[in-house]
Amino acid sequence: MSPKLIFVILILIQASSNNGKIVRNKIIESPNGSKIKIHYIIMTGFNNKKLQGPTSIQTTMVKSVTHCKAECIRVNSCISFNVLPAGSFFDCRLFDTDHYIDQQLLTDQTGYQYFVIK
Which run of H or of E encompasses 3? Predict the structure, then answer.
C-alpha cells in the first residue's frame, strides 16, 4: 500500500468519529481477500469559486489543499471551506455553512478553490 493511500485511509477513518458529519460506509476487499469496512466523506470542489459572506469558524495557513481537507474533517462543525494559495502555503478558511444553504454565498473569485462535503 502506498504512503498516500495509507494517509487517505487514515483521514477517512478519523472522519468517521466526527458526530454529525455526512459519513458513508463501505466494505471493500483487501489484496489478501479479507473484508475491510471503510468510512469516507465525499467532497466536491469548485475552481475559481469562494464562499463569500459567512464568518469562518477557523482560519489557518496550511502546506497543501489536502491539509485543508484534513482540517475540515478534523473540525466537527466544518461542512465547507475556501482555499487560496498564499506564497508557499495556502490560506484555509473553514465554514459551518455551505452554498446549498444559500446559493448566493457562492461567488466567482479567481485563484480560490471552494470545497463542500456532500
Answer: helix 3-15
- Note whether residue 2 is domain-resident: no
Shared domain check, 47 and 20: no
Helices 65-74 and 3-15 cross at an angle (nearest 10°) of 30
Q: What is the pLDDT of residues 9-37, one digit of tens each?
A: 444 444 433 444 556 667 888 888 888 88
Answer yes or no: do 73 and 99 share one domain: yes
Range of the domain at 26: 7-40
Rounded to a whole number, what is the largest CA-CA distance in the chain? 49
Q: Work out the pLDDT band at 59, boundaries 50, 70, 90.
A: very high
